[in-house]
Amino acid sequence: MVDAVLFDLDGVIVDSEPVWEDVRRAYVAEHGGVWQPDTQRRLMGMSTGEWAAYLSGELGVDRSAEQVAAEVVAEMTRRYAERVPLIDDADAVVRRTAARWPLGLASSSPTRLIAAALEATGLVDAFGATLSTEETARGKPAPDVWLAVAARLGVDPARCVAVEDSSNGVRSAAAAGCRVVAVPHLSYPLDPDAEALAAVRLPSIGALTPELLAGLG
Could you tell me the pTM of the whole model? Predict the structure, then answer.
């Protein structure tokens, strides 16, 4: 039995991972840091506090973590004001899923970017609970945000399906006890261990049907 469906935002509903990478790469270069080959993969799923500390500390950016967070999020907000990159069919998928199950949103994006994305895509009313890892003790791959969203919906995480795109996101949702549908971004394929944790791997969000979700119960 599936009691609720929980969505990630970045890479599942909005194609924002390339935007995040572009903004943070430019910021690191501008402020004296050095982007590492594994930086983008490590960043995916981190909370705002975690990635800001990583850029300020490990990558050598000459700004405090607080300044990094404020300045990068300000640039992301500016980009979103120009255009929120909705993934094809994602809004329709969310709507048809919401017609059958309660929905939650568990995102690593800052709260104000979640609000901007949902407003721009017309999906504000689709979710019964939304939460940023800004508001949890740990970001993904820790399970905190999924556990908190399930609690807000009043459902058992083990009776939830989580929809994720990144390796850290899949690890996080699996650690929370959810059954995971992975929809990896072509530019950021799943690590083998994360792929093994997913109950289903889909080529696109449009392939997420009520029939498939019900079959995971």
Answer: 0.91
